[in-house]
């Protein structure tokens, strides 16, 4: 079955359940005049070159058997269960990203940016540590530090150590624990967070907080658009508890309108200039960083902080599949046109006949 004689695109995802993002994608695709269905990798029949997928009929999701689509919006992103044979079978179809699952760690991102130098001033000094003594050295140098797993996501495993007189205070989640001296702190480090092994990233603590003392960052969610260029899905603040040090929504944080946040929570004026600065920085960084990679991205998430002096810091660059809670429609409004753009490119030549330029935009091989 083909949904549209001229163009059909599909979303590949990990789970078959209907979500707000899938509804949004189906709606944008319909308004764009193309067919749309979603599927999971397990439902690809490689031998028959058919896919069991889901599409909207009479305002309800129904299961159908489809031909291969003209392009794929990849939300599985090679994460979790490995679907190598499926990706190989679909390799001739334009796909939104070809990022390998094992690339894009915090450490690699930090090193690439620092080695290139263009955005180095926004990066927080970072190093890999695996022992309590190394963390102690960073405390001696910076007094207040943040430690997080190299492979962690959504703030999981992150903790902050602050110097408090002769002792130290550790914030892990919303729990704060005091240690009277360095020896007791190092003993805890060796027995708890470092006991399981693994590598940690250590950084000086940058205080990015509202007037009420709540930690915050600003997520710049970016996606490629219908012209293959980077655009802003949404800029939105994430505000955490005053008892914690992270602002991730998954860790109990909340979000609000950026303008209200800037004027009320930060007590600032001239929002238009601030928004323009964030937008221009985010798109320029995405274009620049894509040029440092040997794979093509469709989405990127930047976590930006602002210290007491007003300096902007790049807390983290997120290259893996981004969450879309609260931004489902905005994500679809860029992601679906980009997939259509790829499909149209694929109609003039096969996906295997494409290279990417230094911005990750598809260009035909010569």
CATH architecture of the largest domain: 3-Layer(aba) Sandwich
| Count of domains | 3
Q: Supply the CATH class of the largest domain.
A: Alpha Beta
As a whole number of angstroms, the C-alpha radius of gyration is: 23 Å
Secondary structure tally, helices: 8
Order of helices and strands: EHEEEEEHHEHEEEEHEEEEHHEEHEE
Described by its quaternary structure, the protein is single chain
What share of residues is helical? 25-40%
Write down how many β-strands occur, each being a DSSP E stretch of 2 or more residues: 19
| Cross-sheet strand order for the largest sheet | 7-12-8-9-10-11
Mean pLDDT: 89
The termini sit apart by 34 Å
Main β sheet profile: 6 strands, antiparallel
Remind me, CATH topology of the largest domain?
Answer: Rossmann fold
What ranges have pLDDT less than 50 throughout 5 or more consecutive residues? Answer: 349-356, 359-366
Strand content: 25-35%
Question: Structural class per helix/strand content?
Answer: alpha+beta
Shape: globular
Q: Key features?
A:
366 residues, alpha+beta, Rossmann fold, D-amino Acid Aminotransferase, Chain A, domain 1, Dna Ligase, domain 1, 3 domains, six-stranded antiparallel sheet, five-stranded antiparallel sheet, 8 helices
């Amino acid at each position: 079955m083909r949904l549209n004689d001229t163009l059909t695109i599909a979303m590949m995802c990990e789970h078959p359940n209907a979500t707000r993002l899938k509804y949004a994608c189906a709606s944008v695709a319909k308004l764009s005049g193309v067919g749309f269905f979603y599927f999971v990798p397990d439902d690809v029949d490689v031998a028959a070159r058919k896919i069991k997928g889901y599409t909207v009929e009479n305002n309800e999701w129904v299961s159908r058997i489809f031909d291969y689509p003209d392009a794929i919006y990849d939300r599985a992103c090679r994460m979790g269960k490995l679907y190598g044979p499926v990706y190989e079978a679909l390799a001739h179809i334009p796909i939104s990203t070809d990022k390998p699952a094992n690339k894009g760690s915090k450490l690699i991102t930090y090193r690439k940016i620092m080695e290139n130098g263009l955005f180095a001033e926004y990066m927080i000094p970072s190093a890999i540590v695996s022992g309590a003594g190394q963390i102690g050295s960073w405390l001696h140098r910076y007094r207040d530090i943040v430690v997080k797993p190299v492979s962690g996501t959504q703030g999981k495993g992150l903790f902050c150590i602050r110097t408090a007189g002769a002792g130290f205070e550790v914030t892990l989640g919303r729990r704060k624990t005091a240690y009277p001296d360095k020896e007791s702190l190092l003993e805890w480090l060796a027995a708890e967070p470092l006991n399981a092994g693994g590598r940690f990233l250590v950084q000086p603590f940058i205080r990015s907080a509202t007037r009420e003392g709540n930690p915050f960052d600003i997520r710049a969610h970016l996606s490629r658009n219908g012209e293959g260029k980077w655009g802003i899905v949404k800029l939105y603040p994430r505000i955490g508890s005053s008892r914690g040090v992270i602002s991730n929504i998954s860790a109990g944080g909340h979000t609000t309108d950026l303008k209200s946040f800037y004027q009320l929570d930060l007590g600032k004026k001239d929002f238009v200039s601030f928004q323009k600065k964030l937008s221009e920085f985010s798109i320029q960084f995405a274009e620049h960083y894509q040029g440092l990679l040997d794979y093509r991205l469709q989405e990127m998430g930047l976590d930006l902080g602002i210290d007491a002096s007003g300096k902007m810091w790049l807390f983290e660059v997120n290259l893996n599949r981004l969450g879309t809670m609260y931004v489902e429609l905005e994500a679809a409004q860029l992601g679906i046109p980009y997939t259509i753009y790829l499909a149209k490119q694929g109609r003039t030549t096969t996906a295997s006949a494409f290279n990417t330029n230094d911005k990750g935009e598809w260009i035909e091989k010569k």
